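The protein record filed here:
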Amino acid sequence: MRRVTFDLDVLRSFVAGVELGSFAKAAERLGRSTSAVSAQLKKLEDQVGTPVLRKSGRGMVLTETGETMLSYARRLLELNDEAAAALHGVELEGWVRLGLQEDFGETLLPEVLGRFARAHPKVRIEARIARNVELLDRVTSGRLDLALAWDTGTVSPHAERLGDAPLLWIGGPDADGLRTRDRSEPLPLVMLEAPCLMRTAAITALDHAGMPWRIAFTSASLAGTWAAVAAGLGVSLRTPFGLPPSVRALAPHETSLPALGTLGLYLHRADAEPSPAVERLANIIAQQWQGLHL
């Protein structure tokens, strides 16, 4: 079997095109012509030996091989960028104060901290897990350098929208009877203490659908919420991120609950021109989010 050495520039164009949903946009971002990016994709398919993209309507989607290639391409680029940052930025020093939602404490945070610490061991990070209101207050008052927070309709002056996450009804392992339940009976809800963005979204969706509800359990933390949902005390509403094995997202065909939309995610910076350490951490967070979300 011949040994294939992938071109990182080609992989960067491939990943950018998939993440942006357009290889024309990828060409613009990377400072290349569209024909040059097309030639790179042709080179990648020649190396792989099979198509990585196929036509779907007016656009292109990944083939099964393309999905596998995308995963490896991201890992190769992350390692390359981490090595470059470590070699050129090992003297980066300072202190970064990061705030984020509890949803990302066990999914995004460990990878972000690991990548950053390996490349910049002299930078100290202080991470704070908090609710949206506190995160926004702290970043706008300068008590946090970065904050990863859900879209509440209030955007700080130096915010970057990372994307959207689907809102889902969350139930326990024995939540099979929701479709056939008596709709005249109030739906038991397990929610975080108010004010809570997800709590408001759940109540609003049920009210618009004309479905009665009651708060069956209130918790100050997600851990308490998941314990109550797993015990069958009611259903909750959340995104797919940070769900423990004891609960599960409920598919639409399993319930008679109203459909839900999406929720935006923003990365807020305290300053328009943050320090190199803060900006480097912000870039890693954005990259890790794309890996989680796509």
In short: The longest helix spans residues 64-88.
